[in-house]
């Protein structure tokens, strides 16, 4: 359904993403992992059509997304990492705005928006300004907004950030159902335990390049490591965190120059 073919992006000739290729099929949940600065957000921006690749192409259903960005976006749901919503709008107004931008009928927007707000326990807050919402409440509105138009491809960028235990559990259940409904899901996260549990496949990015692309079970078996977290640490050669933490404490305790 979604295909990235040799996609690269450079900022002022410094590569952020290099020759990334993958396909994401209907019903698949693809985890996209990488340390800070490895190129995850840059990839997402290219997938949602916000920026153009410097090289390579992004295809959806066999067509270059930039050939008709509007109809591509009508099939795309996106939950951004940062809840930058229009703070003066209420939760209901925000969903109405998103529905209109997606070209949905007023009556349909009204019905789906109210039902989703109810299911996400936001009914009581539906008329309150988003500026009064907690981080988790805003995140739930963003999830509702991404699902409102029944997209075929959904991109979740750290969707659990700010969600409490119940909302997080609901979200994980939802993810499985969406995949069973045949949605293609790209899941960007730093939370390994969740990625390991919910994703059929993971791509690990390091310094802008794909260093692994396999099912979590296959990765742990192939690398003879117990968890996805240990596979990740090995693949991206993370710093010795215990040593760095110790050195930070030592620096903190210095009182004389
Ligand atoms: N607008 C920009 N201008 C210049 N350089 C950029 C820009 N956006 C990203 N970069 C650089 O591209 C590289 C990849 O950044 P990106 O934000 O894609 O990483 P990330 O994997 O999403 O990181 P994080 O986990 O911290 O969100 C980094 O070196 C970053 O400094």
TrEMBL record:
Taxonomic superkingdom: Bacteria
A family per Pfam: ABC_tran
Record-linked InterPro entries: AAA+_ATPase, ABC_transporter-like_ATP-bd, ABC_transporter-like_CS, ABC_transporter_ATP-binding, P-loop_NTPase
Keywords (A to Z) from UniProt: ATP-binding, Nodulation, Nucleotide-binding, Transport
Flavoprotein is among the record's keywords: no
SMART domains xrefs: AAA (SM00382)
Domain ABC transporter: 2-232
PANTHER family per the UniProt record, alphabetical: ABC TRANSPORTER ATP-BINDING PROTEIN, ABC TRANSPORTER ATP-BINDING PROTEIN NATA
Family in the record: Belongs to the ABC transporter superfamily.
Name of the protein: ABC transporter ATP-binding protein
